[in-house]
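Please produce the structure of this protein holding magnesium ion.
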Amino acid sequence: MNSAFTASPFVGKTFGVTVSRLHKSFGRATVLTDINLDVKPGEIFCIMGPSGSGKSVLLKHIAGLETATSGEVRIGEFDAADPETRNKIHLALVFQAGALFSSLSVYDNLALYPREHRQGNEAGIRERVMHALSILSLEKAVHKFPSDLSGGMKKRVAIARALVMEPQLLLYDEPTSELDPVMSATLTEIIATLREQTAVTSIVVTHDRDLAFNIADRLAFVMDGRIRGLGLPADFKSPADPVIANFLNPVIDLKNPRFKQLENHHE
Ligand SMILES: Nc1ncnc2c1ncn2[C@@H]1O[C@H](COP(=O)(O)OP(=O)(O)OP(=O)(O)O)[C@@H](O)[C@H]1O
Ligand SMILES: [Mg+2]
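Below is the modeled complex.
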């Protein structure tokens, strides 16, 4: 972990998130059904669940990027669907695919938000940008453009950009997908350290069990657009619900002749 991180400037007020009776349909397809969640201020809340179960759509409602069919999302006292809310609080969403501006260099991608929101002079912005890049070991990429970066580097730039925003609510969509195991572990540490130092509420959608079980205060499982389970990580060490148990520890037939039968495997 980068020691400069200890002197993090990313300090501020944070907000809890309440999702109440949220339903979402796209045309005739129902994607979310009666979602109720109460994420406390300062909590790291992980959302897991199969592909296509509605996790990203849920996160977009929290970020104010989707409109509910019914129900509501509140960030502190603010309505997440109200466009004004984004002007009142610093909300950072790390998208599943990074979502960088392709015409801007890495530096300008990171500097965009503080410049637009007139957060300090260019020297101060530069310091914040370089600090965030150093946390994610991206100093050498500062003048590159997104098209010159690998998938994992783009993901790290997107995370660095979120840090520069001095967020009061951090939403991550699959932050460790596309990262190698070392960078995944670093990122897990960054999310936990950032919360410890700034008490920022962090909602993390992830398939990464190591990430979720290492840092979540609480976990929710979304399946078929519904909350199937909610509790402490310890509650899911050996889940009573067979569907969640199979999701976390899928049964694989190791005797499948097409699999390489590794010697000493499962001794
Ligand atoms: N804008 C949209 N219009 C129509 N359908 C959509 C839209 N966005 C998402 N969906 C549908 O909603 C469902 C849930 O999608 P979502 O992206 O939330 O899944 P997910 O749980 O994030 O999956 P993954 O783990 O693969 O990222 C999918 O069936 C998807 O096709
Ligand atoms: Mg998704």
